[in-house]
Every structure is written in C-alpha cells, then in structure tokens.
C-alpha cells in the first residue's frame, strides 16, 4: 500500500503521485538490496500511473524490462473536472472539497484541497515517451470501464516506443467479471517478453 492507503502509515494526498513514486522506489530498493532482480512492475489504475511514471524517471532500475499498465488514466485534468464538476465551485470558493468513495466495509471521505487538486490536474502523463525502447509496456483496459475511459489507453500507444495495447471487451475498471481473462493476457505477454517457453 502507498502511504496513507490500506495498512500503510502516513497521509495520502490526492495530488501526491510523486510521493507514491518514491514509495515504489523504496520498495524496489528494499528488494534489490535483498538480492532480488526486479524485471517488471504491474500497476492498476493510479498504481499504473505510478508504475509508468517510475519507468519514465531517472529512478528506473537498469534491470527493468517491462511495465503492465492496467486501466491507467491519461487525461488527468479533464477527468478530474468531469468527475468533480458539481463540486468545483466549492473547490475554488472554500478551498477544498470532500469526496466520498465507496470502499469494502463502508465509505471513505477524502478532503481534496485546491493546491492538491491543481497538482493532480497538472500531472503530464506524456512523459511516458521517456520510457526507453528496452522497457516494454503492456496496456490492458476494459471497454466498459466507467472510471477511466478506455480511450485514455490509446494515448500510451502513440507515445511509448515498445507498447502493446489490449482492450478487453465488456470489462469494467476492476475486471470484476473477467479477472482470469486479464491474468491470462498478462501472463502470456510477460512470458513472451522474458522468452519463457511454456
């Protein structure tokens, strides 16, 4: 879990993806120091954005060979404005909005401050063009995703040198009805990337 999420300590901030990239780098460094060789990262939704941004950064490990982007968002500003359209006046008048999210076991309220929202909206995912050609990226997205439009995934195809796009028909954001389809696609692709013969 990233800071402030799940069982992790700390405070989660809506625009704090840079903090989450640091968290990912710390976890990777921890396992690298134990002797593990990290060749791939798989992330879902916001975690996919973190994985892609890590692979685009100078923090990236030389051993990294692939990233799997599951339902990662591309249009940050447009999506935030659309999802928070009714609350935007409050964001600029009060300086914050309270966003209620349904979670397992109940609801969670996130307070999003104006500067945090602006930081999130200014996030430029086009930096993925910095991912080198020796790092392959698989993007998987559901055609019925109501959280992140599957059209976002096509932007990654245009920017990443070594990119494969798989749109999974009728799948939602969490692939709730088709988890095994997703697993099979990722497994086969990773085996091909790593030259594993099954």
Automatic annotation (TrEMBL):
Pfam families: FSH1 (PF03959). InterPro entries: AB_hydrolase_fold, FSH-like_dom. One of its GO terms (molecular function) is hydrolase activity. Transmembrane segments: none annotated. Gene3D superfamilies: alpha/beta hydrolase. Keywords: Hydrolase. Residues 22-116 form the Serine hydrolase domain. This is Alpha/beta-hydrolase. It comes from Piromyces finnis.
């Amino acid at each position: 879990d990233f800071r402030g999420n799940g069982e992790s300590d700390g405070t989660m901030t809506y625009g704090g993806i840079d903090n989450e990239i640091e968290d990912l780098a710390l976890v990777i460094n921890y396992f690298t120091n134990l002797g593990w060789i990290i060749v791939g990262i798989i992330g879902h939704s916001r975690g996919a954005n973190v994985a892609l941004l890590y692979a685009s950064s100078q923090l990236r490990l030389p051993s990294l060979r692939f990233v799997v982007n599951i339902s990662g968002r591309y249009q940050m500003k447009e999506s935030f404005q659309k999802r928070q359209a009714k609350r935007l006046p409050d964001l600029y008048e009060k300086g914050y909005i309270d966003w209620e999210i349904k979670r397992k076991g109940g609801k969670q309220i996130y307070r999003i401050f104006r500067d945090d929202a602006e930081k999130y909206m200014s996030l430029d995912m086009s930096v993925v063009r910095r991912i080198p050609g020796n790092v392959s990226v698989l993007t998987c997205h559901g055609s019925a995703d109501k959280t992140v439009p599957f059209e976002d995934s096509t932007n990654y195809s245009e920017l990443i040198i070594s990119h494969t796009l798989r749109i999974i028909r009728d799948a939602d954001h969490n692939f709730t009805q088709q988890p095994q389809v997703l697993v099979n696609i990722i497994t086969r692709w990773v085996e091909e990337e790593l030259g594993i013969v099954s």
